[in-house]
User: Which sequence fits this backbone?
């Protein structure tokens, strides 16, 4: 089992893409693995024949445990090599405690874009419909998957024939004899999910009404808008649109039922475990108000030309990330990890950006954020936000973060108390930019004026730093944002 993230200790086998006796090529997808951070197709590190599967679908396996044995051409010539020696997918012996060589290609993928790290990450592993679904992938909807296509009339074309979907969902469509146009997609941007396919299959089996097309309620009108606060009206608080999937998948109650158990996905299990670990750290909070007048003015001047040139909107998030990166240079004790031995300071400034997805929260990392311009940061953040919502994140998008920016303001929040993304020792929120009446000092005395103001909250690991240090960091972030002016360049 490869380690699929810096803080990931285990993975769940979603689906084996090969069966014993099948020939596999080097780097060919071998197995789908689910963690709280990614759903990844793990490639085979060797070319050969899959001899044995040691971890069944649905099994949760710790890092470095054996999951399969691959016999290579060299191994086939030596029949005495029972487990294929060093050429196994997990290890040669059948003892689960044995571990693979840490340098095997395609397995050490948590720290950098090597080998298979650049493969797109699929939406989610899709168990074969005839097998029992892993507990972590149980749907919150009370829908049973039919083991074979039902012998009823095919549903009418209600969906988008060009809708996006993962290869696993495409296979599921083929297995049930369906076309993409027959399945209304409920995922981001109309993406077809496993649950969409199974809902249509169940409707065909039972003769009930097919799911209605959600085209009118598609949440993904603009990926950057979901990754930044109020891009079209930045100076006023804006609640989340009704179509925004802010609370996760819908919950359907069976007839006559007053309650229904919502099983945890692997992502929710991982979030629960991570948050429990995080709350063991003593949190301290620092809050400041930022006068965003100059920031709003700069963006208003630049956004139209920027949109025309780059094809994406210019959000406020890259400005906050840039301000944080510059402030971390002045306060290096916050660009660090906490360990039992003490504070592990980091040279590189790798800032995680929290992105809300359909069933949870992920934090892809913008590496060397201090080396990027506002434009570079905006493109990088937009890229990971779009890929996150389309389940196309790469393995190297995770791990190595040193500080986190949490943008809750696009949902209209004014004061959020964030939880640390341990082992990081700091996380800052950017809240909604709202117009407020404030007291402004002028040469003629104090006057009341209307100004766009943004609250910011910094959470501090009190083991690593004190409130005074946190206040100094947040003060520097505030000073950078309030210091934005006509001379500030986007590029």
Assistant:
């Amino acid at each position: 089992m490869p380690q699929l993230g810096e803080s990931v200790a285990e993975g769940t086998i979603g689906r084996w893409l090969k069966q014993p006796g099948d020939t596999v090529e080097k780097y060919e997808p071998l197995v789908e693995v689910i963690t709280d951070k990614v759903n990844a197709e793990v490639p085979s590190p060797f070319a050969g024949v899959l001899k044995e599967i040691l971890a069944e679908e649905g099994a949760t396996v710790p890092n470095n445990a054996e999951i399969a044995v691959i016999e290579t051409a060299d191994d086939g010539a030596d029949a005495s090599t029972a487990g294929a020696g060093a050429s196994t997918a997990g290890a040669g012996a059948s003892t689960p405690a044995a571990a693979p060589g840490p340098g095997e290609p395609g397995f050490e993928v948590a720290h950098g874009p090597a080998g298979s790290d650049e493969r797109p990450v699929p939406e989610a592993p899709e168990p074969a419909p005839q097998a029992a679904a892993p507990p972590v992938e149980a749907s919150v909807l009370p829908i049973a998957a039919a083991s074979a296509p039902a012998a009823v009339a095919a549903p009418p074309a209600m969906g988008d024939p060009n809708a996006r979907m993962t290869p696993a969902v495409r296979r599921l469509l083929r297995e049930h004899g369906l076309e993409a146009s027959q399945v209304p997609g409920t995922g981001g941007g109309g993406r077809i999910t496993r649950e969409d396919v199974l809902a249509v299959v169940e409707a065909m089996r039972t003769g009930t009404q097919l799911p209605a097309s959600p085209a009118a309620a598609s949440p993904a009108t603009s990926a950057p808008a979901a990754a930044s606060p109020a891009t079209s009206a930045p100076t006023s608080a804006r609640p989340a649109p009704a179509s925004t999937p802010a609370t996760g998948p819908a919950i359907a109650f069976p007839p006559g039922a007053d309650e229904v158990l919502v099983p945890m996905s692997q992502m929710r299990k991982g979030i629960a475990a991570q948050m429990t670990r995080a709350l063991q750290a003593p949190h301290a909070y620092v809050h400041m108000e930022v006068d965003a007048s100059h920031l709003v003015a700069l963006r208003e001047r630049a956004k139209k030309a920027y949109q025309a040139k780059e094809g994406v909107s210019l959000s406020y998030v890259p400005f906050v990330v840039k301000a944080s990166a510059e402030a971390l240079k002045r306060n290096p004790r916050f660009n660090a990890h906490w360990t039992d031995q003490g504070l592990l300071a980091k040279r590189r400034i790798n800032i995680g950006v929290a992105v809300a997805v359909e069933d949870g929260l992920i934090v892809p990392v913008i590496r060397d954020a201090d080396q990027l311009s506002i434009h570079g940061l905006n493109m990088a953040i937009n890229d990971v936000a779009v890929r996150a919502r389309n389940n196309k994140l790469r393995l190297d998008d995770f791990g190595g973060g040193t500080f986190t920016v949490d943008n809750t303001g696009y949902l209209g929040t004014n004061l959020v108390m964030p939880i640390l993304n341990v082992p990081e020792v700091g996380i800052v929120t950017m809240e909604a930019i709202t117009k407020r009446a404030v007291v402004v000092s002028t040469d003629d005395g104090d006057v009341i004026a209307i100004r766009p103001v943004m609250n910011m909250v910094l959470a501090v690991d009190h083991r690593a730093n004190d409130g005074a240090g946190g206040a100094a960091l947040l003060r520097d972030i505030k000073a950078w944002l309030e210091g934005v002016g006509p001379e500030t360049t986007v590029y």
Q: What stands out?
A: Residues 293-310 form the longest helix (18 residues).
